[in-house]
């Protein structure tokens, strides 16, 4: 009934396939030899290239990088292992590009201070596709300057004061719910609260289907940022791209409603951007943000602010749980403040200034956790770092986590000791929020949210 596959064409096809595969392998190995030879020649001329392995031809060490992401130890594990093996400066190849990791404060200073000359910020293409080409995170030098100039006004003292009140309200509502649950997963709760805080601050979204859908879609985009960039239906990356499309269309709808006056006037970032936009049109002098820029940057701020702040809060709870002495000292400070503020419904920005020890707890938590473990930059000119030649077109990453845990920079770096910040830190030793022209825009907001959380957490719970 069945015909055996004896068709000569079938054998021909197999033969050609094997032949093509063989030729490709030959080509790859020749190319690899040539590259290696070039590398060896440079080294023999006395120009040292950082140590480290470039892995297999074409794929480099991408497989090992993805394995670290999926291992449960987190993507920093990939860097940690290599930094132990090769030292302060090493190279690798991920997604077809050469990456160098550096971990000295002097290198951090040179790179973060020299944005225009030799380095510029760049995320890999797949991340840029997810957050959007108009995002502040991906903008090149000139575009970044214009965008940042417009966005920085949003992070005023007034905005922070408003956020303190709104965040306090959110925390109080959520802590009430915690009482019913036997086990609380801090990260999940923190993610919910910080997402709501971001959406309220940016878009005045507080509840409803639009907010729930947005939360789910932002979750897909965040997962896709760490996934292998395969754009086939069913892959994590594809889901992220689809989610981005839905987010953009929701933001488009919200902007349209605002312009048509269908939404009530809100005191949020979007309203400021739309108002600034109208003003800029009338005087014609300021840089006008396009709708695409507004949308990409609203998404950027949700992503930049939610996960980071939630992780920082979670790490802080963990460190406090492990350090009874610190917890006792902190609690004493917070109970004293609670007495002073007992007549007020919500905390104010001034109250946060009455928390000197809590501020050090926040700083120490950020140092130990290094929520953003490295900062990527693209090399624009051949240069030398840590005595090694770094080539134009390579990526150089400041390994902040290594700096934060370097015993030459911080004594007993693995001890959670907020009082280490009684003295001023060495320059470029505390980089939780970056430094220079790309410093975190939401730095003061993140610190404020962490302080409000600490206060309510410690004065409400045993
Ligand atoms: C604990 C929480 C946070 C941490 C640890 C953190 C960390 C950072 C770091 C390290 C950078 C600079 C990376 C680099 O130089 O490559 C950055 C940039 C940025 N962050 Fe944050 N961040 C936090 C919270 C926030 C919040 C709450 C917002 C907004 C509401 C925000 C918005 C941004 C933006 C827009 C940038 C890009 C700045 C630019 O490129 O000019 N971040 N953040």
From TrEMBL:
Residues that bind heme: 440
Entry keywords, A to Z: Heme, Iron, Membrane, Metal-binding, Monooxygenase, Oxidoreductase, Transmembrane, Transmembrane helix
Co-factor requirement: heme
A GO biological-process term: brassinosteroid biosynthetic process
Its membrane topology: Single-pass membrane protein
This protein's record includes keyword Chaperone: no
Main location: membrane
One MF annotation (Gene Ontology) recorded for this entry: heme binding
Compartments (UniProt record): Membrane
Signal sequence annotation: none
Gene Ontology cellular component annotations, sorted alphabetically: membrane
Residue spans crossing the bilayer: 9-32
Family: Belongs to the cytochrome P450 family.
Full protein name: Cytochrome P450
UniProt source species: Corchorus capsularis
């Amino acid at each position: 009934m069945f015909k055996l596959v004896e068709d000569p064409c079938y054998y021909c096809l197999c033969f050609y396939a094997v032949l093509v595969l063989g030729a490709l392998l030959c080509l790859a190995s020749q190319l690899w030899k040539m590259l290696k030879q070039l590398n060896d020649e440079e080294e023999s001329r006395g120009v040292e290239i950082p140590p480290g392995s470039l892995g297999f031809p074409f794929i480099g060490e991408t497989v090992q990088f993805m394995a670290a992401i999926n291992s449960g130890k987190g993507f920093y594990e990939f860097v940690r292992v290599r930094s132990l093996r090769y030292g302060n400066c090493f190279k690798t190849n991920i997604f077809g590009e050469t990456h160098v990791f550096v971990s000295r404060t002097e290198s951090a200073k040179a790179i973060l201070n020299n944005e225009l000359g030799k380095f510029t910020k760049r995320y890999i293409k797949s991340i840029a596709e997810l957050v959007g080409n108009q995002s502040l995170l991906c903008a090149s030098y000139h575009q970044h300057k214009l965008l940042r100039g417009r966005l920085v006004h949003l992070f005023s003292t007034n905005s922070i004061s408003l956020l303190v009140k709104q965040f306090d309200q959110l925390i109080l509502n959520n802590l009430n719910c915690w009482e019913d649950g036997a086990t609380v997963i801090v990260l999940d709760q923190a993610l919910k609260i910080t997402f709501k805080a971001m959406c309220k601050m940016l878009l005045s979204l507080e509840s409803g289907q639009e907010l729930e859908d947005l939360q789910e879609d932002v979750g897909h985009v965040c997962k896709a940022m760490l996934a292998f960039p395969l754009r086939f239906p069913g892959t994590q990356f594809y889901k992220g791209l689809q989610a981005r499309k839905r987010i953009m269309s929701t933001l488009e709808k919200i902007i349209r409603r605002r312009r048509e006056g269908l939404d009530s006037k809100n005191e949020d970032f979007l309203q400021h951007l739309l108002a600034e936009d109208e003003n800029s049109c009338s005087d014609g002098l300021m840089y006008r943000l396009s709708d695409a820029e507004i949308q990409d940057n609203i998404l950027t701020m949700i992503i930049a602010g939610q996960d980071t702040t939630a992780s920082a809060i979670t790490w802080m709870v963990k460190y406090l749980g492990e350090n009874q002495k610190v917890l006792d000292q902190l609690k004493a400070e917070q109970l004293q403040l609670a007495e002073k503020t007992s007549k007020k419904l919500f905390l104010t920005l001034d109250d946060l200034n009455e928390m000197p020890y809590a501020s050090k707890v926040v700083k120490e938590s950020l140092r130990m956790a290094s929520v953003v473990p490295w900062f990527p930059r693209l090399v624009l000119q051949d240069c030398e770092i840590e005595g090694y030649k770094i080539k134009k077109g390579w990526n150089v990453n400041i390994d902040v986590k290594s700096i934060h845990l370097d015993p030459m920079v911080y004594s007993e770096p693995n001890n959670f000791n907020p009082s280490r910040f009684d003295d001023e830190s060495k320059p470029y030793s505390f980089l939780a929020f970056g430094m220079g022209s790309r410093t975190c825009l939401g730095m003061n907001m993140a610190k404020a949210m962490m302080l409000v959380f600490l206060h309510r957490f410690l004065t409400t719970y045993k």
